[in-house]
Amino acid sequence: MLRPRITSTRELLALDGLWDFAVDDDTLLTPWAGPLAPALQAPVPASYNDIFTDPSIRDHVGWVWYQRIVRVPRGWTDERVIVRVDAATHHSVVYVGDVLVAEHEGGYLPFEADVTDRVAAGAEFLLTIGVDNRLTPDTIPPGTVTARPDGRLVQDYSHDFYNYAGLHRSVWLASRPAVHVCDVTVVTDIDGTTGLVDYTVEVSGEASVRVRLVDEAGAVVSAGEGRAGVLRVADARLWRPGSAYLYRLVIEAIVGHVVVDEYPLSVGIRTVAVDGARFPINGEPFYFTGFGKHEDTAVRGKGHDNAYLVHDFQLMDWIGANSFRTSHYPYAEEVLDFADRNGIVVIDETAAVGLNKRIEGGIAVAGGAEHNTFTSGFGPSIQDAHKREIRELIARDKNHPCVVMWSIANEPDSMIEGADEYFEPLFALARELDPTRPVTFVNLIAASPTMCRASQFADVLCLNRYYGWYEDAGDLVLAEAGLEAELREWEHRYRRPIIVTEYGADTIAGFHSVWDQPWTEEYQVGMLDVYHSVFDRVPAVVGEQVWNFADFQTKSGYFRVDGNKKGVFTRDRKPKAAAHALRTRWREIGRAKPGTDD
Question: What domains are defined for the chain?
Answer without folding.
Answer: 11-176 (2.60.120.260), 181-267 (2.60.40.10), 296-592 (3.20.20.80)
